[in-house]
Amino acid sequence: MERGDSVALVGQNGVGKSTLLKTIIGQLDPASGEIQLGANVQIGYYDQEQTQLNTKKTVLNELWDDYPMMDEKDIRTILGNFLFSGG
């Protein structure tokens, strides 16, 4: 993958998509080989069960806590790209 690329993991349930992502972000150790990230790479990941989210926070505040230096407008743009809307 190169800078600016977008990637989608697509596959049937149970084939290892979540396991791969958890390995890339360091939640799981690789079964073999190694994971090497480029310089200045930041990965954001929220699991499908949303176990890391605080139910008392808005989606905006969840992202802002992870990226406190980002402008509100930029965070709202990202959320809009994922079809979140509202206050």
Automatic annotation (TrEMBL):
Record keywords: RNA-binding included?
no
**Signal peptide coordinates:** none
Keywords of the record: ATP-binding, Nucleotide-binding, Repeat
Picking any one GO molecular function of the record gives: ATP hydrolysis activity
Pfam families given in the database record = ABC_tran (PF00005)
ABC transporter domain residues: 2-70
InterPro entries xref list: ABC_transporter-like_ATP-bd, ABCF, P-loop_NTPase
Source organism per entry reads Gracilibacillus boraciitolerans JCM 21714
Official protein name in the record: ABC transporter ATP-binding protein
